[in-house]
Amino acid sequence: MATAVATNSIYGRGFRSRAASAGTTPASAGRRPSEAPANLDLAASVTEFLELVGPFLIVMKALFGFHMPNFTFPGVPREALFDRVVHQAQAAEKAGFDLVTVMDHFYQIRGIGPETEPMMEAYTTLGALAASTSRVKLGTLVTGVTYRNPAILAKQVTTLDVISHGRAILGIGAAWNEDEHKGYGVEFPPIGQRMDRLDEALTIAKLMFTQDRPSFEGKHYRIDRALDVPRPIQPGGPKILIGGTGERRTLRLLAQHGDIGHWFGGPMEELNRKKQIFFEHCEAVKRDPSEVQLTLGVTLVLVESEKDGKAILDSLTPERRAMARVATLPQAQEMIGTFMEAGFTGFTFNNNIYGTDESMARAGELIRVVNGSSVAA
Predict the structure, then answer these.
(1) Closest by alpha carbon to 260, among 141, 157, 177?
(2) CA–CA distance, 133 with 114 (Å, rounded to integer)
(3) Which residues, in sequence order, are bridge partners of residue 302?
(4) Of 168, 227, 287, 296, which sees the most CB atoms within 10 A?
C-alpha cells in the first residue's frame, strides 16, 4: 500500500507517496474494477485513490535560490549600484527563483574577489529588496553568529518578515572570516566557542519567534522577558537555515534547530556520507529528518553548448573555477535530478555567474524544466 510521507520545505509541509519514493508499485495497480468491493467507505476510497496515483504524485518541488555575493558591476557607477542589485533580484523572481539571499559579510570574500571590492550590509539591503519584490523569500547566506547580539538579530529578521509580508528566512552559521573581525574590532573566539554561541543564538531566535516574553540565561547570551513586537508574520516565525557541514556540532545543531541546511555541492559519495551523519544526529535528538530541507550551493554554468562556458569560467576565481561545472540544459536537469533522488531538494545559483538577463533566462528555463510538472506543497 502506498502511504504519504511528510516533507518540509520553505513552502510549508506537504506529502509525497512513499511508493513513489521507493520506486514500488502499489498492489492495486493490477486490480480490475470488477474486483473492487461493492460498498467502499470514504476512507477506503481515498486509500484506493492514493494507491493508484501515488507513484506518479510528488508534491514537493525543488527550491531554487539566487545568491548575490557580488556587488561589482563593471560600468555601473556607485550611485546606480543598488539599482543593479534590485534589477537582479526582480529578474530572479521573474525567472522563478524561490529565494534571494545576500552574504552577511563586510569585506568581499576570497572565493569571489579581492576583499576591497564593494560589499553591501546584509539587512539594510534585504529590507530594501523586500520593498522591491513580492514573492521570493529573503535572507542571508549566512549571518555570522559573532556579528550581532542574537536578540537584536531576531528583531532584525522579524522586522524583515513584517516588511516583506512573511518572506523572511534566518540564515546563520558560526562565522569564519577573521580578517573582517579584526578590521571591525569584532571578537573572533575559537571555533568551539563560536559553536557554543551559535547554539545559544538559535535557542534565543526560536524563543523570540514563538513566545511573547521569553527569558534565557546562557554562558554567552541572555534575554530577560524580551519583547519582539510586531510579531513575525509567518506562524512560528521565519524558517531557520543553518550553513555548514561540520560533523560533530553543525549537523547536530541543524538536527536540533534548523528547517533548512545549506551545504556546498560535491561528490555524491561525500554528500551521502554527511547526510547519514545528519540522520544519526536527528535520531539522537528525536527529530524527523524529513522536517529539514537539505540544499546545495552549486557552481553550475548553464550554456547553450559546452564550448560557450569558457568565458564565464575565465571570469571566476581559481577556487570557484575548480568547483564549476559547465552544463547544457539537459545535462543540468540530469544533475539536479540525481541530487534530488539522493534527498537534496534545494539549489543555489550565484550572481557572479548569473548576472546577465541572458544567463538568468537560461536559469529560469532550467527551473521550469525541473519544476514544471511539480505541484507546490
Answers:
(1) 141
(2) 30
(3) 327
(4) 168
Q: For 112, which DSSP code?
A: T
Lookup: cell for 23: 520506486
The span from the CA of 1 to the CA of 25, in Å, is: 9
Alpha-carbon gap, residue 99 to 49, rounded angstroms: 34
Dihedral over alpha carbons 261, 236, 153, 92 (to 10 degrees): 60
Query: For residue 222, what are the β-bridge partners?
Result: 217
Position 34 scores a pLDDT of 42
Q: Give the number of other Cβ atoms within 10 Å of residue 365's Cβ.
A: 16
CA separation (Å) from 8 to 81, 239, 258, 343?
A: 36, 11, 11, 12
pLDDT at 195 over 90: yes
| pTM exceeds 0.85 for this model | no
Read off the C-alpha cell for 275: 547526510
In whole angstroms, give the CA distance from residue 174 to residue 194.
6
Q: How many residues does the chain have?
A: 377
Helix, strand or coil for residue 374? coil
CB contact set of 180 (below 8 Å; sequence gap of 6+): 105, 106, 107, 115, 186
Q: Which residues contact 40 (CB under 8 A, 6 or more apart)?
A: 48
CATH of 64-371 among 3.20.20.30, 3.40.50.720, 2.40.170.20, 3.40.630.30: 3.20.20.30
Q: Over the stretch 11-40, which tens digit does the pLDDT of each residue have?
A: 454 434 333 343 433 333 443 344 444 444
Q: What's the angle, vertex CA 310, arms to CA 299 and CA 113, rounded to 5? A: 55
- Tell me the three cell numbers of residue 84: 543593479
The two beta strands, 63-68 and 99-102, are parallel
Q: How many CB atoms lie within 10 A of CB 180?
A: 20
Q: Which amino acid is at 202?
A: L
Q: What is the pLDDT of residues 280-335, one digit of tens each?
A: 999 999 999 999 999 999 888 888 876 666 666 666 667 666 667 888 999 999 99
Q: Are 122 and 169 in contact (CB under 8 A)?
A: no
Where in the chain is CATH 3.20.20.30? 64-371
Q: What is the DSSP string of 314-353?
A: HHS-HHHHHH-EEE-HHHHHHHHHHHHHTT--EEEEETTT
